[in-house]
Write a structure and sequence with these properties.
Blueprint (H helix, E strand, L loop, with lengths): L7 H5 L6 H10 L2 H7 L6 H13 L11 H13 L1 E4 L4 H12 L3 E2 L8 E2 L11 E3 L2 H5 L4 H5 L2 H11 L4 E11 L20 E7 L10 E4 L16 H8 L4 E4 L6 E4 L5 E3 L6 E10 L31
Antiparallel strand pairs: 1-9, 2-3, 4-5, 5-11, 6-9, 6-11, 7-8, 7-10
């Protein structure tokens, strides 16, 4: 087998242990039918073709020409898979962080532990603690940040249609843990046929604070196109260590990444990192509640926000 090549059976088994399981999951939530089959559309070219077909039938804006800034970011995202953005005002980042410090979070890998304060994780084995989506969208500034007009223009240029605001997350990563877990290891995201994420640091992130790491250009490379996390040395050997970018910066640092490319959030060597994310997809993932719960707000596009906001 060629290095970095993955067989069709392995791709199928990424999410589907049996055809019966596939049918049972699809009946539970129709979004899972597409989600479970995504690893079978693994080459960037195939993903672009299928995503383009889906985008053709989705809502589109009747906007004037997008700004040069939006066009530049969309080009960089297509080529590099990673785009640094201007940072948020430090006071805005601090206000959002203060809000989350007053809301309980939970270990998604140990739900039996219940919810706990951000600085009192319920277990020494808790590497990450997540907030509920409803709590995230109640935070100050968050809906406006996720609906930034320039970002929505970037998304429409990149996807070919209005994006679906999806897969919203915010979590703490804790230092002084013995081993990296989950998304702290190199992986691809298989959430949508095509999409990208907005990342916002809400704490200062240096080399020892769990920075995001991304392999530039790997979103356009079909090698290692399978679900399981991969060892660092293998990813570096396949794609080249010179392609690895480590994102550091003060609270308020923002960037976009096509997370079909290989990436991870490093295990902090000290302290705690707070990260806010949202994904802009061509098709909805099963990572959001099945029904929107926010009341309609005329300030925000109902097509973009259809997973979180009622239409009437």
């Amino acid at each position: 087998m060629r290095e970095g090549h993955v067989g069709l059976v392995d791709r199928w088994r990424t999410r589907i242990p049996s055809f019966r399981t596939f049918l049972e999951r699809a009946q539970t939530d129709g979004r899972l039918a597409v989600y479970d089959l995504l690893p079978l559309v693994w080459t960037p070219r195939a993903r672009d073709v299928v995503a383009g077909i889906v985008a053709f039938f989705q809502a589109k804006s009747l906007w004037p020409r997008p700004s040069n800034q939006a066009r530049s970011w969309a080009r960089d995202l297509a080529w590099q898979g990673l785009v640094p953005l201007p940072a948020l005002d430090g006071e805005v980042a601090a206000e959002i962080r203060t809000y989350f410090q007053g809301v309980p979070c939970a270990d998604p890998y140990r739900p039996h532990l219940g919810r706990f304060a951000w600085d009192q994780p319920a277990s020494d084995e808790t590497n990450m603690a997540y907030y509920a989506v409803q709590d995230i969208l109640a935070a100050p500034h968050v809906m406006a940040l996720f609906n930034d007009p320039t970002l929505l223009d970037v998304a429409e240029l990149y996807l070919g249609c209005k994006p679906v605001l999806d897969n919203i997350g915010c979590w703490w990563s804790y230092g002084d843990r013995p081993v990296a877990k989950g998304t702290q290891r190199y992986h691809r995201d298989w959430d949508s046929l095509k999409g990208f994420k907005l990342f916002i640091y809400l704490t200062d992130v240096g080399e020892e604070d769990g920075p995001h790491v991304f392999v530039r250009g790997s979103h356009r490379d079909p090698r290692l196109a399978v679900g399981p996390a991969q060892p660092d040395d293998f990813v570096h050997r396949v794609f080249g260590k010179d392609k690895v970018a480590t994102l550091t910066g003060p609270a308020g640092t923002r960037f976009l990444a096509d997370t079909f490319g290989f990436h991870k959030g490093l295990l902090p060597g000290r302290g705690r990192r707070l990260l806010l994310t949202a994904q802009y997809n061509v098709n909805p993932s099963p990572h959001m509640p099945r029904r929107p719960w926010l009341s309609r707000d005329s300030h925000f596009d109902p097509d973009v926000n259809r997973l979180v906001m009622k239409r009437r």
